[in-house]
Amino acid sequence: MQSQHGFSYVVVMFLVAMLSLAAVRAQQNTLTMERRDKEAEVLWKGIAYREAIRRYYESAPGTGKSYPQELSDLLLDNRLVRPTRPLRKLYADPFTGGAWGIVRNENGYVIGVYPQSAREPVKRGGFPPELAALAKAKRYSDWKFIYQPK
Question: Is the residue at 2 inside a domain?
Fold first, then answer.
C-alpha cells in the first residue's frame, strides 16, 4: 500500500484539468454562438434600415426623389397626404448597444447605416446577393447597408 501514495491525487488533478479544458471549450463555443447571433441581428436590422431608406426614397411625391436627412425621418414620413412609417423604430447597434454609424451622400442625406464595432466578423460568406460585398469586410464597421437606386 505504501507505493500507491499520491496516486489518487494525480487522478483527481487529471480530472480537474480535463474539466477545466471542457469548461473553457464550452465558454468559447458559447461566445462564438453569441457573436453569430449578434451578426444575424446586425444583418436583419441593417437590411431593415436599408429597406426603410428605399421606401422613403421611392415614396417621395412628384419626380424629385430624396433621401432622409436623419434616421429619425424614417419613423414618420409627412411628405405625402397620408403619412407613412418606413421604419417602426430606431434600432440600436447590437454590438455596441448605441447608435449605428450613418453613411451620407455628398449632399449630406442618409443613404445607409453600418455597425460601429471594430471586431473582425465571424461570417465570411453566404450573404444575400445584394450584400455580397460584406464578404470582403475586415471589420463589422465595414458592413455598410446602403440603398442606391438602380
Answer: no
pTM, two decimals, is: 0.81
CA distance 110 to 103: 6
Does the structure show a pLDDT above 90 at 48?
yes
Residue range of the domain that includes 121: 36-146
pLDDT for the residue numbered 61: 83
CB atoms closer than 10 angstroms to residue 93: 22
Cell numbers linked to 133: 460585398
**In this model, does residue 10 exceed pLDDT 90?**
no
Biggest distance spanned by C-alpha atoms of the chain: 97
Q: Specify if 45 maps to a domain.
A: yes
User: How many of the other CB atoms lie within 10 Å of CB of 18?
Assistant: 10
Residue 1 has pLDDT above 60, yes or no: no
Confidence of residue 50 (pLDDT cuts 50, 70, 90): very high
CB contact burial 115-144 (16+ within 10 A = b; e otherwise): bebeeebebeeeeeeebeebeebeebbebb
